[in-house]
Design brief:
Blueprint (H helix, E strand, L loop, with lengths): L1 H39 L15 H11 L10 H17 L10 E3 L2 E3 L9 H10 L1 H11 L3 H32 L4 H11 L3 H4 L1 H14 L11 H4 L9 H27 L6 E3 L3 E3 L9 H21 L7 H30 L2
Antiparallel strand pairs: 1-2, 3-4
Helix pairs in contact: 1-2, 1-11, 2-11, 3-5, 3-11, 5-6, 6-7, 6-9, 6-13, 9-11, 9-13, 11-12
């Protein structure tokens, strides 16, 4: 009985920590993006609220909460609110199967820094990710307005296109690891002393392209091309609801997919990897904290890379985006899958 109660307490603590960290970090990533964009454009960015603008996300949140919550006169109120829930909940649930570090012992209890280590964890990730298309479609249709509908249809088409490519891309690492468990995929890379990005560079490139497309990041942000659609499918949302959609799409989803990329291709919490030689840990002096720091550093590096692309590249047209998905990314992902399926059993076993 005591072990059951302890397990429940640990699970509740994990849930609270994940929710607090994800939503808190997501809010402050808005400041990170504004600072990165400012430095790229040679300007200071937010500087007024707090030291160097550190309290700017709190000021933005207070501002959004005090804004009037407007609703389109002829919209569907139930679906209008449901769309926001369907966007926020699946994006947050993805973190339930992301391992943040190795198993450790605390007060006599062995704890895995993952909410639930299921043997089909990666399947759950993509199942939850696919629900995003329903949230966007509902948001556009329930607003009963032309601009949101056009924006939602554009984004839905992009998600459907790149979901196919990203699914085939991740099958390469799955073949090498022989499991769908996110925790075991990292352990497989550590055991084999090789990050899968060295063996699956094509899959990694396809994954990153699909990440940008599914999260609406430049150069794939055609769903909210400001000169055409104002803010796309969120144009009829106001107040805190308007703030939550970008928080989910641009930050929480980018964070979760970056973490999945780290798990699949960059060895999760493992230190620097030299191909076919092993690992080097310059942060060995941190002791048991080193794996968690490596995981955070890798996710941070991917996120900053995405921001760099966002504020550097021009926007693709919608026809170019879909052509890249079906004519470039999908064939590359299929070729990589077939090549891996043929070569892996011969070389790897």
């Amino acid at each position: 009985m005591e072990s059951v109660i302890a397990g429940l307490i640990i699970a509740v603590i994990k849930i609270l920590v994940i929710l607090g960290v994800v939503l808190g970090v997501g809010a402050y990533l808005t400041l990170v993006e504004r600072k990165v964009a400012a430095h790229i454009q040679r300007r200071p960015g937010p500087m007024v609220v707090g030291w160097h603008g550190l309290l700017q996300p709190l000021a933005d949140g207070l501002k959004l909460m005090t804004k009037e919550d407007l609703f389109p006169r002829y919209g569907n109120r139930v679906l209008y609110n449901l769309a926001l829930i369907m966007a926020l909940v699946p994006a947050t649930l993805v973190f339930a199967v992301i391992p943040f570090g190795p198993e450790f012992e605390l007060f006599g209890y062995k704890i895995k820094p993952i909410l639930t280590d299921v043997n089909v964890g990666l399947l759950l990730v993509f199942g939850l990710g696919s629900l995003a298309v329903y949230a966007i479609a509902l948001a556009g249709w329930a607003s009963n307005s032309k601009y949101p509908l056009i924006g939602s249809m554009r984004k839905a088409g992009i998600i459907v296109s790149y979901e196919v490519a990203i699914t085939f891309a991740v099958m390469g690492p799955l073949i090498l690891a022989g499991t769908l468990s996110t925790y075991n995929i990292v352990e497989a890379q550590i055991e084999q002393k090789l990050w899968y990005v060295w063996l699956q560079p094509v899959a990694f490139v396809v994954f990153m392209f699909s990440l940008l497309a599914e999260t609406g990041r430049v150069p794939f942000d055609i769903q909210e091309a400001e000169a055409e659609l104002v803010t796309g499918f969120t144009v009829e949302y106001g107040g805190m609801k308007f703030g939550l959609f970008p928080l989910v799409e641009w930050y929480v989803e980018v964070l979760s997919l970056s973490a999945i990329a780290v798990v699949l291709f960059l060895g999760g919490w493992s230190p620097i990897n030299i191909p076919f030689i092993g690992f080097i840990d310059p942060l060995f002096f941190l002791g048991p904290l080193s794996p968690f720091v490596w995981f955070i550093l890798k996710v941070t590096a991917l996120f900053l890379f995405i921001l760099w692309l966002h504020w550097t590249l021009p926007r693709y047209r919608i026809d170019q985006i879909t052509e890249i998905a079906w004519k470039v990314m999908l064939p590359l992902a299929l070729f990589n899958l077939v090549f891996t399926a043929i070569i892996a059993p011969v070389v790897w076993r």
